[in-house]
Structure of Glutamate synthase (NADPH) GltB1 subunit:
Amino acid sequence: MSLPREGEVRIPSGCAVSGMFSKSGKRMNGEQIIRSIEVMHDRSNGLGGGFAAYGIYPEYKEYYAFHIFYDDSSTKQECERFLERHFDIINLSKIPTRKMPQITDVPLIWRYFVTPLPTKLAESQLDEREFVAKCVFHINTRIKGSYVFSSGKNMGVFKAVGFPEDVGRFYRLDEYAGYCFTAHGRYPTNTPGWWGGAHPFALLDYTVVHNGEISSYDANRRAIEMYGYKCTLQTDTEVIAYIIDYLHRKQGLNWQEICSVIAAPFWQTIAAMPEQERAKHEYLRNVFASQLITGPFSILVGFNGGMMALNDRLKLRSMVVGEKDDMFYVASEESAIRVIQPELDKVWSPRGGECVLVTLEGGKA
């Protein structure tokens, strides 16, 4: 008897998010982010946990790191044939894990460092990142039993069914070092837990962890699929990741503008703005109306060289930010920050719709 898939059952919601970022690019091991998300254990119910980590593959930083779940070895062979036809595979291996009784029904979990084959890239007439994204969607929609859950450079997603602290230790996250980590503890809103449905959701180097429920999901999904994206997981957070990719990579919006699209000010707020600012927000609301996200949410977006935190415009989900020296912290609860950094220089709660953005000093780790 198979487990219910995404969208087949409704379960009440909770969820927790946490993130930490070194503005100087100092690399830290993953134990701190595990301790942070563990404090919010009661916000999760064991149906999903996960982490995104940046700066963890410096020796392969020029290559795309594909993390892939497989149902079985025959599916793995089919996917690897596809990868060999489209990429130069620099290195491949199982992702190291440790056996834990709390983590069960483990799929095959493999990692590939790849770069597009020049002939295939030229033949496609696409830029490199678009070529990689299309290959990810091909695997996830056409090779049944294969799921690419991470595909960026010098970063990786690690997720599973379980409580997040168990997931972090299962993946031996304490053995990785990065300048940025985000984490999620899942208490699903509408869907059962399965490995692909855990957060973070990722495409290329963009990752999203999310607490809340997107009431505009169906409208957002139908709109984003017009631009070639495939929402196969029937979960609202997936569509946020694709909206971020579309607005930033394809449309060239900056992060402040992206916040003004997905958590747009109300029309009456825009009407009261100075003329130049009002014109900009009117343009964003009109042109990108289908990317407006409604419903309660707090999200953390990771990307190479930075992290963004955002609440819905009514601030219906909690989010707290803290700073200490060059370190930036954000979490659903202040306790999740103070457990790893008791003494903070500054702590505050962002306003609804306020874009909180942190980037590396000098632009690179």
